[in-house]
Structure formats: structure tokens, C-alpha cells
Amino acid sequence: MIPTSFSLIGAPVDTGMCQRGCGMGPDAYRVAGLAESLRRLGHEVREIGNIAPRPVAPLPHKNPAIHHLAETIAWTKALANVPLGEDFPIFMGGDHSLSLGSILGVLRRAQAQSRPLFILWLDAHPDFHTPDTTRSGNLHGTPLAYLTGQEGFEAFPPLTPLDPANICILGARSIDPAEQASLQRAKVEMVDMRQIDEHGIAAPLRRFLQRVKAANGQLHVSLDVDFLEPAIAPAVGTTVPGGASFREAHLCMELLHDSALVSSLDLVELNPFLDIRGQTARLMVDLTASLMGRRIFDRPTRSF
Fold first, then answer.
1. Of 66, 75, 179, 250, which has the most beta carbons under 10 Å away?
2. 96, 129, 250, 257: which one is catalytic?
3. 125 is catalytic
4. How far is CA 258 from each of CA 48, 123, 299, rounded to the nearest angstrom?
């Protein structure tokens, strides 16, 4: 059963990519009614406010493309050290580099409870670059490599790595050759949109959830706006055509709710500057509500 007590944690991270705007994401979720949606479902909600990192001095790197390295490390430390308690944390982002810290925090919690952590990565990209391999220098493309203990993260907080076999990347459709090779070496499960087109989204997700249940695992879901088809979710700086449809995305959330395995959530890459009258923010709130128990046929009919 999904817990009934949630902590909303603002993570206005805007340093993991070059295009600005994701720092406004937490406030967009608040305006779109995330807390109210959860309360209407009978859940208790605690608003933690926005987390802020400590000021840092610039940190050089041998890869000249890397930018905001020191700031990203500071964000990682700040988010990893958020007290989680027994609440279900929802990290409202912010670009995807916030997952360096949010998942480090929930990984530490799972390890303290002697339970394995699994990650469902809903994203057009696998984000399996390292600071050494990224050509863009955008550190929002590195969280899964860091969390699985790949080389190149010596300046980041040390961790007991996550087992790559405990990751499922769902909806991928933009993968660099270096990432592809690293993912194959690490044996990370990746379900791309070709497979979803052929077999649907439910079958691979159910298989992954069965593995989580069999291991008595905790499940973290990281939901990137670009998992979705850009036509329904335009507010992201990394749009890739051919994403999940409205119904595929809601079905995914409903299956996750039915599993009762999810224990933490990232909402990332929402850039309100690129949105159309709050369309994407409202959709992300609706998807979160589906994950927390709202059924698709509970949606009200809107008059136009």
C-alpha cells in the first residue's frame, strides 16, 4: 500500500544543463496543485520548502565541456542529507542532476533498513554518462552512472553503489554510443520505445515489478518530463519525439500504485518557461495523483 504521509521537497536545481528554467519547477508544481491533489486522495502532506546548497568555489575538471561541477556536487550533498524519516519523499525539480542527491539519500535509507533499492527511470535518455564521457558537459546526464559506481565521480560523495541489475530504464529513445556501451557492460535493463510499440508498456513494467517484489525491494521512480510525448508535455528543454502517450503514462502510474512498491519519487526537468498555460505542470500533477491512487475514470469532465 502506498504510504499516506508525503514530504514535498523543492529541489530548484538549474545547473545540470545549459538551458535555464528548471529552477522554477517546484513553484510550478505548487501552483498546479500537487499538494491539494494528494490531500484530496486522503493523504497527509508536509511541505518541506525548497532545499538550498551551500555556496561553493569553482572546481576545474579535465573535461573542458563540464560546467557547474562544484554547484552540482553541492546540490548532491544537500539533497542526499534531507531527513527522510518514514515519509514518502517527492522531490520536485529541477533538472535531472537532482537525482544524484535524491536517490543517494533514499539509497542510504534502504541500505540502513537492509533492503535493496530498485530504480524505475522514466526518461527519453538513460543518463549513464560520466563526467569523463559527456560531450555536452551537462551533468543531468550522469545520475545512473554515479549511483552504480562507475568511474569518474571521485569528487562526488562516496557511496555503496546500487546494483545495475536493479535499474529499469523505460521509454528510452535518445542514447549516445558511449552510454550504449556502458549500459551493455553494466547489464542495465532498458526498455526502449521500439519495444513498447511492439509489446506495450504494461508487460515489461509488470516483469520489473515482479523482480522488485521478489527481492522485498524498495522502489524509487524518477519521472522525467521528456518521458512523455512532447505534444502533451512541451515544457522540457530536451524534447524527443515519440514519447509515452497520455494513456501509456497513466497506465504506468496506475500499475505502480497497484504494486504498492513505490517508496520515493522524483519529478524532474519541468521548465515552466517553455510550458503552454501550465499544461505540462498539470499533467505531471495528474500523473502523480494516478501513482498515489486516483483512477483514470475519476478525472472530471471539463467544459470548453
1. 75
2. 96
3. yes
4. 27, 21, 18
3-state secondary structure of 260: coil
68 noted as active-site residue: no
> Which member of 71, 224, 248, 286 is catalytic?
224
Could you read off the pLDDT of 70-112 as tens digits, one per residue? 999 999 999 999 999 889 999 999 999 999 999 999 999 999 9
The residues near 10 (Cβ < 8 Å, ≥ 6 apart) are 26, 27, 48, 49, 50, 51, 92, 94
Exposed / middle / buried, residue 86 (Cβ in 10 Å: 0-12, 13-18, 19+):
exposed
Longest dimension (CA), the chain: 57
Which three cell numbers mark 43?
Answer: 493523504
**CATH number 3.40.800.10 is the correct assignment for the domain at 5-297:** yes
CB 235 within 8 A of CB 24: no
- The span from the CA of 140 to the CA of 128, in Å, is 10
What is the side-by-side strand order in the sheet with 262-268?
A: 44-50, 5-11, 88-93, 262-268, 218-224, 117-122, 167-172, 189-192
Please say whether the beta carbons of 284 and 269 come within 8 A.
Answer: no
In the set 127, 179, 266, 286, the catalytic residue is 127
Query: Global pTM?
Result: 0.95
Catalytic annotation present for 44: no
Measured in Å, how far apart are the chain's first and last C-alpha atoms?
37
**12-63 pLDDT tens trace:** 999 988 889 999 999 999 999 999 999 999 999 999 999 999 988 888 899 9
Residue 264 is inside which H or E element, if any? strand 262-268
* Cβ-based burial of 30 (10 A; exposed 0-12, middle 13-18, buried ≥19): middle
